[in-house]
């Protein structure tokens, strides 16, 4: 599209003041944007003009599409790096979600707010990177001072969002940054509780960081109980090897062993029995 727009506005040709700047930015038509700003130097068009579709500014659109040259031009023209679209999302959040490392770097250099949260989802740029599996961006944001333990509208941290998306690389990055594993979401679940519902690889990563295995959700369920309910045999084994208690009771008095009996989880009973034998040695 950028080539088509350059054809419409050839160098030296007429350039109307009413050209759609958001469209030019989203297409990466950098040369045309520069000409617009130069030609109308006495009365330049606003670089923060809004797209009627979602209230995005040119910078938001260019950042979303990973157009670093256009982003730099707009930043140099004093575009508002904190502008938000109709969902309260900023350019940094969009660039982070897209994994656009170069754009993220430009926005950070322009002092974009690392920890700003969108108005609807309450997610930060780090959260967007985490849930989309953008490990390099997540590392960049953390290095720049992003807070790892802020919570979104569901009470989920970047770590929990990465776990829920089964993004092992980002989980590892966040754990290395000492992200808090004990923050509870609105459902009252900690990171390890979320992990046991995803994959044993994710659970293994968290267990290496030694989370509290006796933390309970509002129903009194531990990660072990939740793993058993999911019939996640391998994860149950990992939890037992990590020292998860089989005696912790839920709100109605259920333990891991009584749950296995109630549900007829024969394989789980064998796993629990073997764990007891090992613990007695």
From TrEMBL:
Gene3D superfamilies: Ankyrin repeat-containing domain. ANK repeats lie at residues 54-86, 87-119, 121-153, 154-186, 219-251. Pfam families: Ank, Ank_2. Keywords: ANK repeat, Repeat. The keyword Isomerase does not apply. It comes from the Eukaryota. InterPro entries: Ankyrin_rpt, Ankyrin_rpt-contain_sf. The keyword Repeat applies. This is Uncharacterized protein. It comes from Chromera velia CCMP2878. The lineage of its organism: Eukaryota, Sar, Alveolata, Colpodellida, Chromeraceae.
